[in-house]
Structures are given as structure tokens and as C-alpha cells.
Amino acid sequence: MKNLSPLQEERLKYQPKLPASLAGGISNLVAKEGSATESVANQAEIKELFQNTYGKPTITFASSNESNTIEARNVGVILSGGQAPGGHNVIAGLYDAIKQSNPNSKLYGFLGGPSGIIDGKYVEFTDEFINDYRNTGGFDIIGSGRTKLETEEQFQKSLAVCQKLGITAVVIIGGDDSNTNAALLAEWFVKNNTGIQVIGCPKTIDGDLKNEQIEISFGFDTATKTYAELIGNIERDANSAKKYWHFIKIMGRSASHVALEAALQSQPNITLISEEVETKSMSLASVIDYMVDIIVRRADMGKNFGIAVIPEGLIEFIPEMKSMIANLNDIMAELENDSVFVNASTIREKFEIVENRLSADNAKVYNSLPALIKTQLLADRDPHGNVQVSKIETEKLLIEMISTRLDELKSEGKYIGKFNAQAHFFGYEGRCAFPSNFDADYCYSLGYNAFALISFGLTGYLSSVRNLTEPASKWIAGGVPLTMMMNMERRHGEMKPVIKKALVELDGPVFKKLEANREDWAMNDRYLFAGAIQYFGPSSVCDITTVTLQLEQASKLLNV
Ligand code: FBP
User: Fold this and answer.
1) What distance in angstroms lies between residue 205's CA and the mean position of ligand 1's atoms?
2) pLDDT at residue 32 tops 90
3) 206 pocket-lining for ligand 1 (C-beta < 6 Å)
4) How far apart are CA 463 and CA 67, in angstroms?
């Protein structure tokens, strides 16, 4: 890499911090077992599907005075799913742990996501190669992909590639869907006596891969700080010009954690939380009424500007939309192998086939939407059967519907303001940012710890580093069985085992903080300008993590 700025040079040199238990190296560890575990739901079905990897204990590592010899190992690593800041450091941590334990060990990177292991496309990491990527954002070191690993043929091909390279452990860095892949592959490798272990690492900016053992997925910290900086910039612009309402959709496929955290850091006038909309069974019309009420009241105060933050997944949480989208998903799955549909000559014909199969109620909802949104709802599903919500312009849908409602109110003499709206979508802007110190340290520790789990012969585990609001030296490293986080969900029209997503808890401290402040933030402009991520300086400034994690940890301590 050439032409680096002084800041980039400094970032490459940053040495990430490790938990004290790991800092002495992998050869000086003991693994303490917790009690046997159960899946979060559908225990009988999950146990049946994962007969060889179900119910394993949780693991916690502690340092030991005795030193173990670590045999040379060949390990493969995969980056899977959406990019999240810090992925390169997971690989750097894994690489350092492997090489420090035995310089004869090798780390291979599979190219382009899970398809790399199936097709045998890989690179071997060296010091020179890795060093250019330390503490950088992005997944470009080996690329990522969303291929679902689930068929016998894919597993057989992966086995052949691992055997050719002498690989005895695979690390999959991914979110809920990718770690579901990891669990399936781990089970298959054990069932077929291959001797190959599989370890997952919790990645996703969405922040929805979490539980008692996984406090947060990596990338959430950096992405939310990046979005908060951007929202702050727009708030300042809005407060200067005082002429626009900015509607900002924030990435996060299902859960609203990202929008909520970015809002707590920037204090916009309106923040919608999808989980609240669903729990309160708010229709699209009532979401519009809620926003219109704030816009009208601000206009009465002479403020024809404001900021509204909208979670990316909102549309799937509005009950009538949820039912219609579920119906569309099933229809699209059924039609995958339908010759009339597959051979339809125009997109319009395809759309008509889908539309004609919708139930009467769902067709009514669907037909009430603007043409643009209808087309976006019919776009291809991702390989896991999910609607690609990043392609649905909910922010524009809301602007259009609000505008119509405000015109009606104006004609009735109930609205005296001017509504000029700008639409934004912040998503890709944050997923490859330079990782914050927190993510740089956390990711490095997750990767390093993944090799600790490998060295203890474990498989079907997710690398876990906890106690994250404390300084890194006090972080607790260990592992959590992947099956512990699974339940059965409908995907592609069938019930499948998947890792359960953690949604925003409405009785939790994070949402409560927004709830307690939102009327004040709606009417008074309490904007916060977070500014750029800090990489250097006192740890109270540059190492501090999200409001979400701090509030969640503080509330856990209070409830102990
Ligand atoms: P992961 O769950 O794979 O981490 O990806 C999350 C995400 O960034 C979502 O926030 C977003 O909806 C989606 O990926 C976008 O997907 P794509 O990168 O395929 O456009």
C-alpha cells in the first residue's frame, strides 16, 4: 500500500489490546467448562438436527502457569455476509495467535465468502500481506459473500478443499445467517468423522447477534459512531438553514439497534423504533399520524425543519406490511422452480404472476403502495430468503405519505407550515469505516480467541469476549455453543434452524432512555454533534464504547 497519510500510517501501527487471560499466549491457557446448554427455543427439533454438537458447555479461558505445546495446524478463514468494521483485525488476531503458537502453522483465507471454500479459491496469509490490513476497515483482504452453506454437495466440496490444504479448522466470521452456516458445517464435519473443527466469530453492524455470552457483535460500535457523526452534521445543517425536514433511514436489516444507538448519540427530533411499532400494532397510517403530529406542532412554533431517523427494517414490522411481505416471500419461494414464472419474458409479467397469488387482504395493502415501493418489494430475496430491506426506500414512502396528509391538513386550516423534505440512507457509509479502538481491540481479541478455542479441540462454538465496558485487560474470553442461540424459523417457505436475532427490548434501559427523552427532543433541538471517531487520546475519549452497551451492562449490574 502506498501514499498513506500520517493518520493511516499511525493506524497500521496500532497494537490492539487483548484480555489479560489471552495476553500470555494460547499455550498458557486453561479452559473452564460451564454447564450443558440448551437452544433458546425448539429444543427437540434443534437437538435432532444437531445430534453431534448440541448441548455443549460454555467455555471460559484463564491464564495458567503451565505451558502447553501447540502442534502446527492449518486453519482456513471465511468472511461472510455484510461488511463490518474490524473484520481485518479478526483475521490479524487469528493469524498472530496461530503463528505465535507455532510458526509452522498456516492460515488460509477463502476468497469471496463461503463460496471460496466450496470452489477452492484461497490465499495463504503472510506477515507482509496481513500487515497492510491491520486496523483498517472493509473485508477486501479476501472479500465476502452471502452463499448459504447447506447442501451435502457443498459440504463434500468444502471437505475436499480442506483435505487438499491440510486444513483441520475453519473460522467463519459472520452474522446470524453465516453462523447458522458455521453450525451446520460443524455438525456435518463431526458426523462424517472428518476431524475438522468450525468456530464462528460474531460479526454484524446490526447488533442483533447478542445474548448473555455475546454482549455485542463487532462493527456495531464503529458503524453507529459513523452514522451519529453524519446525523450530527445534518442536524447542524438543518439548524443552520432551517428549511428542510431530513428523513434518514439507517441500516440494520431487522432490529432497530443501530438507529436507536445512533439516535442516542445525536438526539434527532423523531426516532422510529420498529419493535415498538410492531408491539403497539401501529399501522402505516398511525406511524404517519405520529410523525405528522410532531411536524405540525413544530410548524406551529415556526420550525419547518427537523430530523427523523428511520430504521431500515421498519416496513417489515408494520403488522399489515409484515403479513403482506411474508405472503410475498412464500409466493416467491414457490415460484422459484415454476416454468411459467421463470420463462416470463418481462419483469411486468413476473410481477403480475406474484401479485395475482397474494391473498385478498395482502393484495389490498400491496396495491395501496406507490409503484416504486411495489417494485422494490418484489426485488430478489437474499440467499437466506430475506427481503433486501436496504433496497426499499421507506424514507421516500414516508415523505410521500406525510406530504399528502399535510396537504389535507392545510386545506382544513390545521397546518400552517411548509414541508420540504430530503431523503437519506446511511448504511454502506458506515460498514467499512476504519474501526474504532473498541472494534480494533474487540475484533483482534475475537480472532485470537478463536484460535484458543481451536487449540482446545472445540467445534461448533462462537468466539466470545465479554465484560466489554471494562478496559480490555479485564475482558473475559471463552466460547458459546452455536446451537445454544438457535431456533426454528420460516425461510424460503420452509422451517429451518437459524440463530435467533436479538431485537430491541422495549422494557430495556436503552429504549427507555429514548422514550424518556423523545418529547423533549421532538420539540426542542437537543442535537448532539458527535464528530469524528477518536483514535488517540485519553481512554475515556477514544476507547469508550456505545451508549447501548453501557446502559445494558449498568442495568445488568443493578439486577444482580
Ligand atoms: P449481515 O447481517 O450479513 O452482517 O449484514 C447486515 C447488513 O449490513 C444489513 O444492515 C443490511 O440490510 C444488509 O446487510 C445489506 O446487504 P447487502 O450488503 O447485501 O446489500
Assistant:
1) 8
2) yes
3) yes
4) 22
Compute how many other C-beta atoms are within 10 angstroms of the C-beta atom of residue 81. Answer: 26
Cα of 431 from ligand 1 centre, angstroms:
9
The Cα 170–Cα 195 span in angstroms is 11
Distance CA(397)–CA(303), nearest Å, equals 23
253 lines ligand 1 (CB under 6 A): yes
CA separation for the pair 404, 515 (Å, rounded): 28
**Letter string b/e over residues 369-406, b meaning 16 or more CB atoms within 10 A of that residue's CB:** beeebeebbbeebbbbbbbebbebbbbbbbbbbbeebb
Which atom, in ligand 1's list, is nearest to the CA of 258?
Answer: 10
Residue nearest atom 8 of ligand 1, based on CA coordinates = 82
- State the Cα angle at 552 between 551 and 558, rounded to 5°: 90
pLDDT digits 0-9 by tens, 336-345: 888 888 888 8
Rounded Cα gap, residues 53 and 183, in angstroms: 8
Number of neighbouring beta carbons within 10 Å of residue 536: 11
> Tens of pLDDT along 265-322?
999 999 999 999 999 999 999 999 999 999 999 999 999 999 999 999 999 999 999 9
CA dist., res. 553 & res. 279, Å (int): 24
| Residue 76 β-bridge partners | 108, 170
Q: Give the span between the Cα atoms of 372 and 541, in whole angstroms.
A: 44
Residue ID of nearest Cα to ligand 1 atom 20: 390
What mean pLDDT is predicted for residues 27-41? 95
Nearest by Cα to 447 from 464, 467, 434: 464
The answer to whether 119 is a known catalytic residue is no
Q: Which atom of ligand 1 is nearest to the CA of 80?
A: 3
Nearest ligand 1 atom, CA 312: 12
> Is the CB of 182 within 6 Å of ligand 1?
no
Catalytic residue among 96, 176, 177, 206: 206
Q: Is the pLDDT of residue 539 over 90?
A: no
- Do the Cβ atoms of 139 and 47 come closer than 8 Å? no
The mean pLDDT value for 438-466 works out to 98
